[in-house]
């Protein structure tokens, strides 16, 4: 059934993902309903193993759910062939990983343009220049990733995610490998993309300070959403996480 809800960039319904064998199943997601409005910045938090990465990967079409549905705008992912899903991922979804995942043999420019080249799309040079300048990499285009700092490498990854003008950018602990001040630069950049370009960002993080840059915090525990908190500050987020720790310890 189509479900046109155009103000949502992404929506998931009763999403489950079970890993492992039939005899020893591991339930990573146990029925998650969530919607991410266009032009918003959401942080996803929760204890290690609570299903955060699995939620991102299934919502991004990198992994297939065991049951439930995912919509990117009006497109339902479960109906798509592998080929169509791969194309949709390249054209409409950006993904930023903790470990940057850049190709060391390619220059910064080549890394940023790789998804477009794989899609066979002629790069939009004006948009490329705008993205590169927005992330502050105009002077680094001919460098290799190994010649850059961690923060610069993550900005390359963000530029690569932005290059195809995606509907949404998923980030899995994008600041996990960065020091505090470099992390703040990357978070300010994500925040600016949301505020200035109505980009939609969904970010997994362990860090209450990182999460406080978001408009909303979803908390996962044991594969379920247990809290959905609008505009919390870092103190409130830290309290939520502490209470979750106590609940699990009890
Ligand atoms: P988080 O990102 O919150 O730490 P994950 O989504 O990575 O959690 O994992 C959720 C649960 O699913 C964990 O119990 C984890 O061990 C399990 N899991 C994740 N990926 C796999 C996989 N490829 N095979 C088997 N189990 C997995
Ligand atoms: Mg994870």
Per-chain topology:
Elements: E1 8-20, E2 25-37, E3 41-45, H1 52-59, E4 67-72, E5 75-76, H2 82-92, E6 93-97, H3 108-119, H4 125-134, H5 150-162, E7 168-172, H6 180-197, E8 201-204, H7 208-211, E9 216-221, E10 224-230, H8 234-249
Parallel strand pairs: 3-8, 3-9, 6-7, 7-8
Antiparallel strand pairs: 1-2, 1-4, 4-5, 9-10
Bound molecules: adenosine-5'-diphosphate and magnesium ion.
Residues 52-53 line the site of magnesium ion.
How would you characterize the overall build of this protein?
The protein has a single domain, classed as 3-Layer(aba) Sandwich (Rossmann fold), CATH 3.40.50.300. It contains eight helices and ten strands. It has helices spanning 52-59, 82-92, 108-119, 125-134, 150-162, 180-197, 208-211, 234-249, and strands at residues 8-20, 25-37, 41-45, 67-72, 75-76, 93-97, 168-172, 201-204, 216-221, 224-230. Strands 6-7-8-3-9-10 form a six-stranded mixed β-sheet, with helices on both faces. Helix 3 (108-119) runs parallel beside helix 5 (150-162) and helix 5 runs parallel beside helix 6 (180-197). The longest helix is centred in the C-terminal third of the chain and has 18 residues, at 180-197. The model has no long low-confidence stretch (mean pLDDT 92). Residues 52-53 line the site of magnesium ion.
């Amino acid at each position: 059934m189509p479900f046109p809800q155009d103000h949502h960039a992404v929506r998931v319904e009763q999403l489950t993902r079970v890993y492992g064998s039939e005899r020893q199943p591991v339930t990573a997601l146990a029925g998650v309903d969530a919607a991410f409005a266009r032009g918003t910045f959401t942080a996803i938090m929760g204890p290690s193993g609570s299903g955060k990465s699995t939620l991102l990967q299934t919502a991004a079409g990198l992994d297939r759910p065991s049951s439930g549905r995912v919509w990117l705008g009006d497109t339902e992912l479960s109906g798509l062939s592998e080929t169509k899903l791969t194309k949709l991922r390249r054209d409409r979804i950006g993904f930023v990983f903790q470990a940057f995942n850049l190709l060391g043999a390619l220059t910064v420019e080549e890394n940023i343009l790789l998804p477009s080249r794989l899609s066979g799309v002629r790069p939009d040079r004006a948009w490329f220049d705008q993205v590169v300048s927005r992330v502050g990499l105009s002077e680094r285009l001919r460098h290799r990733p190994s010649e850059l700092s961690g923060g610069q490498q993550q900005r390359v990854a963000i530029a690569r995610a932005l290059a195809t003008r995606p509907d949404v950018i998923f980030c899995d602990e994008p600041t996990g490998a960065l020091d505090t001040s470099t992390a703040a630069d990357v978070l300010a950049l994500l925040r600016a993309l949301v505020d200035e370009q109505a980009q939609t960002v969904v970010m997994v993080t362990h860090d209450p300070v990182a999460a406080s840059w978001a408009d909303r915090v979803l908390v996962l525990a044991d594969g379920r959403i247990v809290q959905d908190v609008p505009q919390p500050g870092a103190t409130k987020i830290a309290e939520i996480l502490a209470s979750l720790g106590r609940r699990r310890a009890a």
